[in-house]
Amino acid sequence: MPPGITGTTALVGLFVLTHLGLGQPPLRDAVADRIGSVRFTVLYALLAWGSLGALLYRYMVERAHGPPGLGLAGIPWVHITAMVLMGLGMVLMVTILAPSGYLRSAAVVFGTHTRAPRGMERVTRHPFFVGLTLSCIGHILIAPRLAGVIVFGGFGLLAMLGGPLQDRKLRARRGQPHADYLAATSIVPFVAVLRGRQTIVAAELPWVFVLLGIPSAWVAYRVHGTGLGPWLVMGVLVVAPLWFAVASAFRHHRARSQ
Questions:
Q1: Interval 37-90: pLDDT, tens
Q2: Where along the chain do its domains lie?
Q3: Proportion of the chain in helix, strand, coil states, percent, rounded to 5
């Protein structure tokens, strides 16, 4: 394996293992009990941000070099499929910014209880993870270099594992109420609806943010092949999760202090 690809692969593995390992018990509980949940979240977010920032910087350097990737953009139906997947992924990820989004959802890590599914939770309980997975699949299909396949494959793997691992952690922490929530919802969009476990309530959906996701996907497409593309990826994958992790921790801390 070429040296550049080896370094990129190592950074992907480090990010995925660190991100998943530190976020799961018993290691997470042991460290959080010692330094406090808020300090742990800040530390965890900074470590995740640092490792991901190093990975994305390496990718910016190596993305135009090295062995070829799948590079299927020349096949019209594959190119269209990839664009649709990335567009849908962007729409799903943007919805977590809504006032009724992640910070008020039952999936928020620092929430103290599980409420009934609302809004996008009726569609999928993990819109960010699902959106990131779809976007990564689209990128993998058209990535011209192997570095892109490895990087977005790592992100996709993290997204696919992140939802189930978070579900397991919250079910252990909150007990039967969260088990009931999991039984009434689905990770794969609309599966709970199709199986009769959920009903879409149009008034609950964050339509403004769903519609905002469409121009966001268009902007992402327009800058994808420019020098701004990697910075857009960094903004979505680094700044947004970092902000939500810190915001959820301080919101939890403030609620406990009142």
A1: 777 877 877 787 788 878 888 887 777 788 899 989 899 999 889 988 988 998
A2: 3-257
A3: 75, 0, 25
